[in-house]
Amino acid sequence: MDIIQFFGRFHVLVLHLPIGILMLAALLEIHCALFNKERSKLCNLIWFWGAIAAISACILGYMLSTGGGYSEDAVFIHMAFGISVASTAIICWLFFKFKKTTSKILTTLLSCLQLFLLFSTGHYGANMTHGETYLVEHAPNFVRTLVGFEPHQEPRPPITAIEDADIYLDLIRPIFKANCISCHNDAKAKGKLNLANIEGINKGGKTANTWGNSQLEKASYIVE
Ligand code: HEC
């Protein structure tokens, strides 16, 4: 039993609360500022609970990250954005609660900043869970090239004779793509194993270097 990991996994549930609550707070502020509506005092309460939810998501996210399995760079950027969401939420709460004058421009700017940070944090978090290619997987080619991805590859012709099949491209890659790369990709390499490309497969995972020759011989014997 690992109590830190037990609580850490609730990050995936709790993270939706700051998204909903802080987005509501920011949109209400922008709406009131743009359309000259009277601002309800309830908005302060929404900012407060949004900040609490963001802080909770940060703490649980940190607990989850101690379990490893994610690339350090991916964790770092998601964590940095997550902490900035929580800090901005606290600043917004204090600012709107205690401010004496109402500047519509400042209100709109702060609320837009909060929305931008929320989207960025969510985006980097989702990249870690679903892989960086998830959003562009079914995108048209012009969208893919616009955001720096290769255009879709032509589908490989169906195999008619098994001797003509490319072992990796026709047999192994479709299986890994369907079953494995959601957890073993560039951003999230569970067991330090990246099955998204041939280099990663050849490199192996965290136990790759602990396999002695005798074990490899035994393994190839089993395969035969
Ligand atoms: C739901 C997520 C998930 C999926 C899907 C998944 N794995 Fe894993 N895999 C893991 C985790 C987590 C570990 C690390 C386990 C550990 O370290 O105790 C792991 C470890 C491994 C390892 C050991 C790496 C090492 O060197 O320690 C291999 C090999 C592996 N997976 C192969 C596969 C293959 C092949 C598939 C697809 C058929 C697959 N995995 C699908 C989560 C997943």
TrEMBL record:
Keyword tags: Membrane, Transmembrane, Transmembrane helix
UniProt domain DUF2231: residue ranges: 10-129
UniProt key word Transmembrane helix: yes
Presence of the UniProt keyword Transmembrane helix in the record: yes
Domain of life: Bacteria
Segments passing through the bilayer: 6-30, 42-64, 76-96
Name of the protein this chain belongs to: DUF2231 domain-containing protein
Lineage per the UniProt record: Bacteria, Pseudomonadati, Pseudomonadota, Gammaproteobacteria, Alteromonadales
